[in-house]
Each structure stands twice: as C-alpha cells, then as structure tokens.
Design goal:
This protein has one helix and 30 strands. The chain is mainly beta. The strands form seven sheets. Strands 1-27-26-25-24 form a five-stranded mixed beta sheet, with no helix packed on it. Strand 28 (about 320-325) and strand 29 form a beta hairpin. The chain starts with 8 loop residues before the first helix and ends with a strand. Pfam families: YNCE.
C-alpha cells in the first residue's frame, strides 16, 4: 500500500500558505493605515471655507499691514518693487507706490500713519507718508532687511537684518538709525509688545527668539523654541508669544504653533498644524490667532484660550503675510505665487 503523501497535499499546502500570506498582508495594511492617520491626520473634522474675496496686487506679494484707523491695507510686492494700497471698504487697489529692491516686511506707525518698508536687496527702509502715499525718506540699514515692527510710544522702528544677524533701530523723529543690536543667526520676523515695550525677534537658524527691551535697546537672553521658527505674534493682554515652528527629527517633520509665557519663558502645550507654518498674526481684540500654512495652502484659525484649531480657510498659492483689521473682523492674506490678497471675514 502506498503510504506516501497524497498528490492533493501540495495543492492543499499551497492554499494554506496563500491564505496565511493574505491574512498577514491585511494585518500589515491595517497597521500601516492606522500609523498614517495617527501621524498625518488633521484631528477633529473641521469644515474648510473659501475666502470671501480675492484682490489682485503686484508680483509675489510678501508682507501685509493694516492701518486700523483708516482701514487701509498696504502690501509689499517683492518682484514688482512696489507697495499696493487697498481701500478696505471697497476692496480695490487705490495706489501703487514704488519703493526699493525686493521689499519684504512692513509696519505702520499708528500715531503718524507712516509706513515703513524693508527693501531686502537695497539694504534700506522706505518711509511712506500715509496721507500723500508717497515715499518721503529712505533709511540705510543692515544686510538684507526683512521684518519690521514699530513701538510708537518709544518712537522707534525695529528692522531685522537677515544676513547681518542684527536689528537696526530707527528713530522716527530723526528718521535715522540710532542703534544696531546683535541677535541670533538669520533673524526674520519681529513683533513688539507695546505695553511692556519688548521686541521679539525670531532667528531661523538658531531656533531661538531674541528678546529686546525697547526702552534701552538691550537684548536679553534668547528663548529656545526647539525648531525653525516661522512667524511670531504677541498677545499683550496675556503676555503670551506665539511662534510657528517647523521641526525635523529622525526624518519625521512636526509643525505647530508654540505658545510661550513671556514672563517665565516656558510653554506647556503646542497647537499642531497640518502644513508648514509661514506667518502668524493675532487679533487681540477678538481673541483670535491666525497662522498661514503651506502644503496645503490654508489660513488656520486658532482660539488662543483653548489652544485649538477652530476654522480653516482655503486661500491662494503659498500664503504668507497676514494682517488683521479687528474692527471689521477682516483678515488679509498675501498669496505669493498668485499675486493676490485673500480677504477672509469672520
């Protein structure tokens, strides 16, 4: 009698192996999808809304600022070497002003309605009179000026010099540089808390924030943020600094907004972002924090009290600069690639 293996055994064995392999694949795929959503999922479902309007400006708009007294919006156009002036009521461009080469950041002095524009290739700051909409002065600053902020009470303008690793301080009465302050490597954005007369400067390469006392232009010890900072805002009411951070560790990217207690320089939580942070802006009157993110191109709305994302708006390609008009609850976002401004009303 033949007691060797049946001719059907190899077939049966093959079917069993096939079934086991399929089961392993199903389990592996399930785990893979779970890991993907744990890492990349945007969290609670939030409906994305479209911007209320779009305004065409110059080429490669970069910075945005609003004169809240006149509801006038100013936009730097990096590749056009101009500033577009927008009537916030009609949402139309009313003037285009020629400035220096490659204008980036800008800021408005609410006391005089003067506009200060950093010209990164000219190593200068253009001063625009808000009444006549003409350039009335040009001030030489450091190497590759980038961000601008104003302390109106101290009659000072703070300009970051990206390649100079410094901040130029302009006396608005004399319209001249009165001091140069050394900060970290590649300082980009700057914001001023006018209640404490403190300027906060983000240093891209050092992963730090430089803290400057604007009453004496003295720089204190830097604050470490744990990643490359992009965009900074401050809430004078709560003494909280908000900085967008992009961190890459072991090949994994983490992007978030980091709230920092300005008094003790600590943070206990982060607000996760789906996309790379570009800029931040705060509407302190209405208690709303905004952040532009790239890939995907969105305006993210954050409640600074709960530190949770509450709304997301679709804007143009590569959104950057943000400015807020608190009275009209209107947000203006510069879309670098499109040459447009997205208008979001909340």
């Amino acid at each position: 009698m033949n007691i060797g293996p049946s001719r059907r055994s190899p077939v049966l064995f093959g079917l069993i192996v096939f079934a086991v392999v399929c089961a392993i694949l199903v389990i592996a795929l399930s785990i893979g999808f779970a890991v993907h959503f744990l890492r990349a999922g945007p969290g609670p479902s939030i409906n994305e809304a479209q911007a209320s309007a779009t305004i065409e400006v110059g080429e490669a708009p970069w910075g945005v600022a609003v004169d809240t007294a006149t509801h006038t919006v100013y936009v730097t156009n990096k590749d056009s070497d101009t500033v577009s002036v927008i009537d916030g009521a009609t949402r139309t461009v009313t003037a285009t002003i020629g400035v220096g080469d490659n204008p980036r950041g800008l800021a408005i002095d609410p006391a005089t309605h003067s506009v200060y524009v950093a010209n990164s290739q000219s190593n200068s700051v253009s001063v625009i009179d808000g009444a006549s909409l003409t350039v009335v002065a040009t001030v030489a600053v450091g190497d590759r000026p980038f961000g601008v902020a104003v302390d109106s009470a101290e009659q000072s303008v703070y300009v970051t010099n990206y390649l100079g690793n410094s901040v130029s301080v302009i006396d608005t009465k004399r319209v001249a540089v009165e001091a140069t302050i050394q900060v970290g490597t590649n300082p980009s954005e700057v914001v001023v808390d006018t209640t404490t007369h403190t300027a906060y400067v983000i240093n891209v390469e050092d992963w730090t924030i430089s803290v400057i006392d604007t009453t004496n232009n003295h720089a204190a010890e830097d604050i470490y943020v744990g990643g490359s900072p992009h965009g900074v805002a401050v809430d004078p009411a709560t003494q909280t600094i908000y900085v967008g951070v992009r961190k890459i560790s072991d090949g994994e990217e983490d992007t978030f907004v980091l709230p920092i207690d300005a008094e003790n320089r600590t943070s206990t939580t982060v607000v996760s972002l789906d996309g790379d942070p570009v800029r931040t802006a705060l509407d302190s009157d209405n208690h709303v924090l905004y952040a532009t993110v790239a890939d995907p191109d969105r305006l993210v709305v954050i409640d600074p009290r709960t530190r949770a994302v509450t709304d997301i708006f679709k804007v143009g390609d590569f959104p950057g600069g943000i400015a807020v008009d608190p009275e009209t609850r209107t947000v203006y976002v510069a879309n670098f690639t499109n040459g447009t401004i997205s208008v979001v009303i909340r």
